[in-house]
Fold each of these.
Amino acid sequence: MKAIKFHKTGGPDVMQYENITLDAPGPREVRMRHTAIGLNYLDTYFRSGAYPLPLPSGLGSEGAGVIEAVGDGVTSLKEGDRVAYGAGPIGSYSQVRNMPAGRLSKLPDTISDETAAAMMLKGMTVRYLLRETYKVKAGETILWHAVAGGVGLIAVQWAKHLGVRIIGTTSSLEKAALAKSMGCDEVINYTEENVAERVRALTDGKGVPVVYDGVGQATLDASLDSLSPFGLLVSFGSASGPVKNFDTGVLAAKGSLYLTRPSLNTYVESDEALQANVADLFEVVGSGAVKIEVNQTYALEDAIKAHQDLEGRKTTGSTVLLP
């Protein structure tokens, strides 16, 4: 059995494809064999040390596969069940692993393994952002940064399904076209346009009630300047680096704004909350309201190349590793 491990933090080349051994599943655990594994920008935070982990460590929080064995006390799953997950624990970059049964969700026949691996963490993230962190309403206009990424493309479709007008930001004409093909109403190329000025122009000077920002430091000012008074900046990622040395007085000066830094793990901490989130995700994907774009696949052993392409902004939509 093989898995990706890293013994020190750093660039993609710290990852190693290693032999592993696996104990029998313990109480309330199952052993699953991965058929597809999701690649997420979050993985690079753990690999680089931005989010510290005890070392050596595995990597990855999202995958799909088949149950091979069940431990004592497991009644919700059985051998042969197709399952998927998107909320850890860390270690999905592996051929086989043990998982807490309560963190797995049975896959409906309408959703393939590759689709599930590509959508679980990203889709669960979009669900809590749109339905819990800020409950978007039909007729509202929102701003979403990096709209052509895996999370962004799901968000565009889900927001449109809810009757929301969405403004997105991207770095190229190709990515803008991709976002528009998924229903994004307006796309701003941040390499050529002033984002906040364009948002104001598109909203008759009012700004938006909420900005979803997974980019971090590089987009902070544009995000704040795009908000209407009492607006909310949802800073849910830091692809460009974390926000540092933030002066909260800026929130007052720019219109009594709000800032939150949410995490999926908090929103799905209980098994019940996780399954409620996943039920909504399966519903919108199963109905066809949200389509999952798997635009790149790599062999698990080529995880280094996958990370290089992800961080080099060479990917769009979702990426899947195949064990």
Note: The two ends are 10 Å apart (CA to CA).
Amino acid sequence: MSVDGFEQGLIRVTELAALAAAQTMGYGDSHSSDKVAVESMRRELDLLPMAGRIVIGEGERDEAPMLFIHEELGAFKGTEDENVQGVDIAVDPLEGTGLCATGAGGAVAVLAASERGGLLEAPDVYMDKIVVGPTARGAVHLDAPVAENLRNIASAFNREISDLTVVVLDRDRHRQLIHDIRRAGARIRLIADGDLSAGISAAVRGTGVHAVMGTGGAPEGVITAAAMRCLGGEIYGRLTALNKEQEQRLEEMGIRDVDRIYSAEELAPGDQLLFSCTGVTDGEMLRGVRFFGGGSRTSTLFMSRQRGIIRFVDTIHREDDTAPVHFQ
């Protein structure tokens, strides 16, 4: 398969996962929404001409039946043939399971891929994060006071702090962070889920998002880093365990320095990074899946760091070739 063919294959993976999840949208069953997205993504990944390996997945082998860390995928999985492309894959088949279950905006199906070793194998723990776009790259530090980071971001944009909007997950653990941001004078957009999508928004002009701050999932942090490498933005993150079980996961993964701050280049060091994200429900940049008589329509953001391309892919999936096509 050609480079373009492989990239189209990855786009199809997230498109079909989004379609599967969207069919459960609004039913109030986040587990089922996640399950159908996982099953679809795994099935399509297994068709690609690669020796794939999951480095960020749905959980450990004893917790998730599919897409677990170190699971092998692809038409040539397990092969040692040097002529077969070895690919490391980070997936979130449905980021925003609760959003999909309730019909709220911002749910996506997303994956990142790279050559072997191009994505950090982060355990399913938490990560303290700060994400900014290209304009504020180099202007923030994870351990800097909130007010100092906001001053530096405002200076980079040649604006006042009061002009900034910061996205924060609406969690009890963020009470002090929310207080500090408001005290500094910036606006806050609280979200129920989906800090990965928010991180991408921070790196794209016109979304009204200038930064993402707070503690979220470490796997999402690695996938966000892959997107930042493609978009020229930055993420700084520190792996954090919120309970004994997560501490054990860090130990099992061989992570001893819990104070280490990772940059985007350390979280996603690959030279051949690929990123595909398809909307499940309407979000800042991507429309959700739209169903019509005889088919459906998806919106996808695809990026290749090596090729320097960013694509917005609008696809109509026809199930009945006699039905009229809707272009709105």
Note: The longest strand covers residues 86-95.
Amino acid sequence: MDQHQHDDARAAAALTVGDVLAAVHELWPEVLAEGWDAVGLVAGRPDSEVERILFAVDPTAAVLDEALAWGATMIVSHHPLLLKPVSSVAASGFKGEAVHRLIEAGCALVTVHTNGDSAVGGVSDVLADALGLRDVEPLAPTGGGSPEEGIGRVGELAGPQSLADFAALVFSILPAVAGGVRVAGDRNALVRRVAVCGGAGDSLFDQVRASGADVFVTADLRHHPASEVREAAGKGTPYLIDVSHFGSEWLWLTPAAAALRHVLAGRGFAPDIRVSTVNTDPWDFVLTPGH
């Protein structure tokens, strides 16, 4: 092989943003995203080369600091930077500043949000697996999708546990954040059937009741919806466990990075992929009775 052929072969082997997007679409198809969502490529040219990929929950300024200091050429974030439509990306605002920093550094940004929730091996699958659930199925199956796809998951513990012990298990698998874990229900009640939804899941209470779950683990539970669920249940089920939105989705990053690495390796690519070490939970401290 002469030098020209060697250079052509090296060029052909270069991983591009488009290559990564194809792998992302295979793992977390965009058709699974909710209609209100904004997923896919946010910044970057499809033909740009990718050598280092950082996975993160949120594309915050601190995450961009970390990514660009490392020399990342792509960020895969769970939460969208531009979920709501904008009329300007001027750097006078934090979203515009993020877009400018990405473009100026040659770093692409792709969002895997509700498609990453619904897909097999997605956010709620990882949460269910971390809790040791068996016979897992979607809490809200996707219309026309495979039986394994959908928002949330519901499954069975290996054996009954007290609500207090199960809440302690939930607490133990999540990253340390200021808000901790909140529980509604009799701490001594036994639970076995568990519903989970990474991120905000209080739109799924009807599905939780229909599933027969003893307890529902999710994030961002608001006062009125949570109160109404518990009032309707009396002293019965479902009990509620409210966790950090960031924490419930952070668990997905490592298996997601491994899945992308595996797919790309099967196509002859070996980029450097790592998970962000930045805690993007927005709360810094909490006060509790006695403190």
Note: Residues 5-11 have pLDDT under 50 and may be disordered.
Amino acid sequence: MKQKSSSLKSTIAVSLNNYLDAGAIVAGASGITLWQNYLGLSEIHLGWLNAISANALGAAIGAIIGGFLADKFGRKFIFTYNLLVYMLGVLVVMLSTNFPMLLCGFLITGISVGVGVPASWTYISESSEVGNRGRNICISQMSWGMGPMIILLFGMLFAPGGYLYGFVESVAHAVIGADAAEAAVQVFSSRVVFFTLFVVAFIAWTLQRQLEESKEFRPAQGEGSPGIETGASSSILDNIKALFTNKIAVKTVTFLAVIYLTWNLVASVMGFFQPHIYETAGGLSNEYANMLSCVGWLVVVVVTLCLSFFIDRLPHKLFYVLGLAAALATWVVIIKGVTGVGSLWAFSILWGINGGLSVQIFYALWGSELFPAKFRAGAQGLMFFIVRGLSAAWGIIFTYIYGENGEGFTLAAWCMIVLLLISLVVGVVGAPDTRGKSLAQITKERYGEDF
């Protein structure tokens, strides 16, 4: 019972990284118009902010660095220092008075998010009991869902016209003067939202500093199998070489990258489609649209919570199929057309169900199970780099498919369906049977005694 409690405690502490990941993405997106008005930014400026943010290249670069650092120096090494970098990035955003500062803040935050992802999923899996590994990954995913939900709520409360905007105005006038320009005052709502991330990051850093090093990493420092150089005894280049020269590892990277990439290409543009459907096709107000988005994220959290009770008891493939079926149904609703508020609610709930049973859950679970400790985090960092990097490129391609005024809307929707079908088929064919097995057992079955 004590071990189970310890596993849950460490999972919650590390899962705060997912909150900070998703929270940074949504905080940046929700306040981007305010920063544009305040700094006079062009669409090119906004494109740069998106490209180097936590949703794209910033996180991609950070992930490939952080993954191999976690395999070299340990998971706790990442937890000890990385969130200090995150807090620095958020602080720079909060204090930004020009575009270079804002760009720098987005970049630092994005890199930190990427550095933390592979270490977090690896640590959660390695510190979990055999019968709770899936549950703990689900808890981590719940944190990822709560980030956008809470940040969107903050955005609604602190935004101009929101219930707490009076507080924002008083803070702004106290800092920059009573005669400050309206745009300068309004952007303080975004600064306040980023401040909430700073507070959560500080709490997470305090909790994570108290964690013990992963037991899976300890053998890598010389207590494990003789003749196998891992962890501190091997160089980062050795681990990269081992990853790319092992046929099973390469095959696994390909499988996981395909299912996650095809799903993530769809998920990455949902932030674009949802406001369009809610406000344009659905004719909703901005406040109603934000409320419906919050409801969607609430569905994600509730469905993931339900999944956490069954994922270690029932076949993973069952939930994998159900999640993608909900995703496909979401885009069928879009293709048939939005006919009223009922269609918008169906759209939001179906995508929320997909989020609660998302491919990302199984990617995080399988990605931390299917590689040996030698390059477990590095492999995840590599895949995250590939997925986030290509998602950034896809965001540019997608705008051409979609068109200036949405004339390519139906074609774009069919592209989404094709991508989801690829993720479904490849996942069903290649889904591993890891439920109920220890990480050591899985590694031995896949790679033999040497690992």
Note: DSSP finds 19 helices and no strands in the chain.
